Amino acid sequence: MTEVEDNFEVSEFTFNFHKGFDLYVAVRCGKKAALDELESLQTDPISSGYLAMSLARSENSIIPKDIPRVKELCAHFLPLMFEMTINSDKETIEFLADVHYLIAFCQENGYAVSKDPVKSVENYRESVALGHPGAAVNLSNCYDDGVGVAVNKAKVFELCSFAAGVGHPIGLNNLGCCYLFGKGCSINHVQKMRLWEKAAKMGYPMSQVNIGLTYFYGEGVRTDEATAVRYFQQGVKAGLCRAQLMLGYCYYRGSGINGDVSKAIEYCGLAAAQGNASAQYQLGCILYNRSFDQADREKAISTLQEAANSGSPDAQYFIGCCYCTGIQGKPKSIIEAVRFLRKAAIREHAESISRLNSLQEEYKEELWQNRKSFWMFLTSYQFVKPAITDTGPCTNSVHE
């Protein structure tokens, strides 16, 4: 397979595209001032497009997602984008690469136009042909996921290499992920770290957290929890959810930093507030284990319920068990127990599958009387395709 040579280097992050793209990348690095500048430029249709993309793609608490605003902005700039590509001499369009990129973004997500993965891929290709690194990142994700095009890991590697080669931080991050998982190349932890370190120095928080996770779990390097904490702290400054969760976990366990339950609650709480199911579950467990009175215990159970509703299999198992026996303020309800255990079982949660098997024998008649729940039970792990356990956004390629 094709691989980057040992002497692979990237240029500085300078290339001539619309100013809005540079500002958008700065927003992805958690720079609120860049968002403010995009807001001031939104009368320009291309800047308006990058403002919409910033609000749609944000991964941090500093700049929260705002999908209604995204749709409003797309409805404004998209007709102008189409007009530029249809009615103009393409050679005279100064920022044609940006135009195709923004059209593809709308088509990919169904903003102000019907969702059309195939047309989205076509426009990403047009943009890549004109040298746009952001389009290369998104097109690589299409090849990776098989959206609008057949899965092709070699193309993923090729496109990420191009984006990384012009110094695009998300391209650097995603090429590192190629080396982590062996997408179109051999697994190479040295190259992975080199690429992530370059992106981290450019302020890209996903790469900072990826490095932290690498040191925390010892993936191809010697385990170093103190170094991991330093990188998590960098990600926290950018408001990155996974960084907040991991730093909270380190404070709770005393891993690489002095243990501090209050700090653990603070940082896990920040991540939980962003709707992260893993953070909600972690926060619920911490609150449950340190609860001093009934009010604390109720807060813990409420947080674990939120985690279950957000999709945490561990939380779904816990809530399901509460309904099984009627504890922790939950009424005894085998139907509700099956509902939550089924959700976890679909994701191959072993304890939930075991508990469902026990319920089948113990409450078969009651489940049969409520045929809908009985059918839910039967399909919970036998016929429904299991979902992949969420390992968080930082250990996979990131959408541009």
Which descriptors apply to this entry?
single chain; disordered N terminus; 400 residues; mainly alpha
Describe the 3D structure.
- It is a single chain.
- With 400 residues, this protein is mostly helical.
- The protein contains 21 helices and no strands.
- It has helices at 19-28, 32-40, 45-57, 67-87, 96-109, 117-129, 133-145, 153-165, 169-181, 189-201, 205-217, 225-237, 241-253, 261-273, 277-290, 294-310, 313-325, 334-346, 350-362, 364-369, 371-379.
- Helix 16 packs across helix 17.
- The longest helix is centred in the N-terminal third of the chain and has 21 residues, at 67-87.
- The protein is globular and about 70 Å long.
- It starts with 18 loop residues before the first helix and ends in a 21-residue tail after the last helix.
- Mean pLDDT is 85; it is low at 1-15 and 371-396.
Q: What does the main sheet amount to?
A: none
Beta percentage is: under 5%
Give me the strand/helix succession: HHHHHHHHHHHHHHHHHHHHH
Helix-strand category? mainly alpha
Rg over CA atoms = 23 Å
Cα shape: globular
**Helix content class:** 55-70%
Total beta strand runs: 0
Averaged pLDDT, please? 85
Detail the poorly predicted runs.
1-15, 371-396
Number of DSSP helical runs: 21
User: Distance between termini?
Assistant: 25 Å
Short description:
This protein has 400 residues and is mostly helical. 67% of the residues lie in helices and 0% in strands.
Question: How would the blueprint of this fold be written?
Answer:
Elements: H1 19-28, H2 32-40, H3 45-57, H4 67-87, H5 96-109, H6 117-129, H7 133-145, H8 153-165, H9 169-181, H10 189-201, H11 205-217, H12 225-237, H13 241-253, H14 261-273, H15 277-290, H16 294-310, H17 313-325, H18 334-346, H19 350-362, H20 364-369, H21 371-379
Helix pairs in contact: 1-2, 1-3, 3-4, 3-5, 4-5, 5-6, 6-7, 7-8, 8-9, 9-10, 10-11, 11-12, 12-13, 13-14, 13-15, 14-15, 15-16, 16-17, 17-18, 18-19, 18-21
